[in-house]
Amino acid sequence: MRPSSFMLILVSVLSACAPSPGEDSSINYMDSDTKRPNIVVLFLDDAGYGDFGYTGNPLIRTPNIDRIAAEGMRFTQFYSASPACTASRYALLTGRLPVRAGFGWVLTPNSPRGVHPEEWTLAEGLRDRGYATAIYGKWHLGRPEEYLPLQHGFDEYLGLPYSNDMQPPRWISLPLIEGNEVVELDPDQTLLTATFTRRAVEFIERDRQEPFFLYVPYSMPHLPLMPGAAFAGGSPRGTYGDVIEELDWSIGEIIGAINKRGLAKNTLVFFTSDNGPWIIKNEHGGSAGPFRDGKGSTWEGGMREPGIAWWPGTVPKGSVDHEVATTMDIYVTALQLAGARVPTDRTVDGHDISPRLRGSSSSGPRNPLYYYGPGQKLHAVRQGPWKMHIMTSSQTGIDYFEAKLPLLFHLERDPGERWDVADQFPEVIERLESLVSTHVTDVAAEGSFFDRN
Ligand code: MG
Predict the structure, then answer these.
(1) For a tag on the chain, would you pick the N or C end, based on fewer CB atoms within 10 A?
(2) Class assignment of domain 35-357?
(3) What are the residue numbers of the active site?
(4) How many CB atoms lie within 10 A of CB 265?
């Protein structure tokens, strides 16, 4: 870490919050009942809700993902915080809406920006509590060295700094980075899933006393689809199916390593995807299942993700959670379980869902969900079952409701957003419009670290 970044983080830690949850004297870390669990986040790139056996796909074989769903808890209303890569990953690792960092969408290879040093990432929070931390896979939170994972709480990194299609001829050669060093240019992408898997398994197998945080943001099924040789041509769903089936194999290897080390009862695994399927790529993109649209859109298909929590002995086996949860909740929940501090000197949008993970029906009232589209534009808000669109966009170019706005859908009765009922419920529209106006004012008032520096 550069001294300047270190000082910034140190200053923000020292000046941040009092009291901080990490200093709560009621938490006894030596008590085995409150033993800090290992945290594993398995994060697919552009996989859709409907790409797995357990969500109804009849063609793609995902026995390992189906097994962790059956052994753990599956979520039916699990959201990413953005329908695009960079913004979604920022939210996962900071618990904050991407707009709070001024992240609108996706960083390109020549972008000078990244995750700001004053952000407090999940890796920093867990490492601060003594966790060993590693990321194997796609970063996409800044290419300049000061923004790479080692400068944001990770002890180890092997992976791509951004998407696997950001390569020649349009871009410079795609680097594979280990730590802060480029170790290969334009690597053979058919080896990537297996490489990330091997490194993740080696990390789990290491002898250590401290807990660990393992983040595996796979670079696929983002295009180009590059399945390993053992999977190419094997799936009835074509190359897209081959890639998902290899990812399923990888997840089986990682869960197998956790089981083999006897760590299952002390390891919380989250499985999800950064955004919806790239449906404009036709058969090379995935399926959003029952939801409208996909990647790049604030229709449900762009942000409603598969979501599984697996923690044998703690998360009830075969349970289903039908309440709203988001990737930002992973941040807060993991920090709380680790007894780590959740920043209070900035807005954190995630919620602690650990009571729900233990089978309690609710974690209490939560904030509305805000759906941001391209250019940090607020597109929609959801409160309870109601979702109001004030803008819409789709990479398909289709305007499904012919420019009528606002649109209102009852997502529990109509998860596919088929029937606009705005005219029937003016009082709901009025309530949601008032939420929007307060939210927009609050976000503008807080600004971002980039604005302030
Ligand atoms: Mg993506």
Answers:
(1) C
(2) alpha beta
(3) 85, 140
(4) 12
